TrEMBL record:
The chain crosses the membrane at residues 45-66, 78-98, 104-126, 138-157, 315-339. This is Inorganic phosphate transporter. One of its GO terms (molecular function) is phosphate transmembrane transporter activity. It comes from Parvularcula marina. It is a multi-pass membrane protein. The keyword Cell membrane does not apply. It comes from the Bacteria.
Length: 343
């Protein structure tokens, strides 16, 4: 067991953070590609760089951010047996991987909560779930964030477009290429800046959270986080972002609505402000819901319209994420408990 548990934790953490990177890197950089500021591949590279930077910054700040998310789900603390600990990680990893393959932008946080609820129901019973806290602190903010993003995008996009045009947007400005032109501030520079900031923040916020649910496999508490977990998670999240991040990026960047440079920046700025503001207030909003909904809200203003087929598929994926992850967790726990005799 001395080597088995760290190896198992490493495999599970890699799977979870890889799928998180694959699905979530797009949320901060899809507008760069969709607005024609840069190519999909360069946008994904930019998001990957800043996501990894945010993940690694967790070594400095992450100990203050790591929380036992199960304390927000369960009425009282429980000692996780191995079948429970593995299922809580395996369920969201499987669901997010499936969603990425199907080109659905989903919330890893929602999937993690679903895994905890599913395992809690079968392992500890319905009375073990703190349904009131689940509704107030997790479900309500996650449901409210899309509405907030759509309303803000619809209301502020015309104003932000006018402000953006004052910067004389130039779509050829690309910080990943070398050139001899004299630097000047444009809306595209600001777009690169906000997307990098949002990618950094996502890496910083998601990495400690995903590491935290891996700790029970290692039989560690949130105060005993090995350095290798941050390095490993950053590597996996970066690999998932770069190798598999294009699928969702194309959906958000091109399939929801068509974006001009100014509109892409407006959607990204609104997402950045909402996510960072919510983090400051301690509200668990979903970057997935906020960024996707900002693009939808912009599409409602945009004369080019919104692709409702794509939007319906996205919203359906959001709705079924928690119950689907819960079902995956129940199935995983049942199988593992039968194999290990820990039921």
């Amino acid at each position: 067991m001395e080597l088995f548990l760290p190896a198992l934790a490493a495999i599970l953490l890699f799977a979870l953070t890889f799928t998180n990177g694959a699905n979530d890197v797009s949320k901060a950089i899809a507008t760069l590609a969709g607005a024609g500021v840069t190519t999909v591949q360069r946008a994904v590279l930019w998001g990957t760089i800043w996501t990894v930077a945010g993940s690694l910054f967790g070594l400095v700040w992450g100990h203050a951010l790591i929380k036992n998310i199960s304390s927000s789900i369960y009425v009282e603390s429980h000692d996780f047996v191995l079948a429970v600990a593995v299922s809580v990680i395996l369920a969201p990893a499987l669901w997010v991987a499936l969603a990425t393959w199907r080109k659905w932008p989903v919330s890893t946080t929602h999937a993690v909560v679903g895994g905890l609820v599913g395992v809690g129901l079968i392992a500890y019973g319905a009375n073990a779930i703190d349904w009131e806290t689940l509704g107030k602190k997790i479900a309500l903010p996650l449901l409210a964030s899309p509405l907030m993003a759509i309303v803000l995008a619809y209301s502020l996009t015309p104003l932000l477009e006018r402000v953006a045009h004052r910067f004389h947007a130039d779509g050829d400005d690309d910080p990943l290429t070398e050139g001899a032109r004299k630097p000047r501030l444009t809306v595209d520079h600001l777009h690169w800046l906000t997307s990098g900031l949002l990618s950094f923040s996502r890496g910083l916020n998601d990495t400690p959270k995903l590491i935290a649910i891996t700790l029970p496999v290692l039989m560690l508490s949130p105060g005993e986080v090995p350095v290798w977990t941050y390095l490993w998670a950053a590597t996996a999240m970066g690999a998932g972002s770069y190798l598999a991040g294009r699928r969702i990026t194309k959906v958000l960047g091109f399939d929801v609505t068509k974006l001009s440079h100014a509109q892409g920046f407006a959607a990204n700025l609104i997402s950045t402000v909402l996510v960072l503001g919510a983090s400051r207030l301690g509200l668990p909003v979903s970057t997935t819901h906020v960024s996707s909904s900002s693009i939808i809200g912009l599409g409602l203003v945009n004369k080019r319209g919104v692709n409702m087929k794509t939007v319906r598929a996205m919203v359906l994926a959001w709705i079924i994420t928690l119950p689907a992850a819960a079902l995956f967790a129940i199935l995983s726990y049942s199988a593992l408990a039968a194999l290990t005799g820990s039921a």
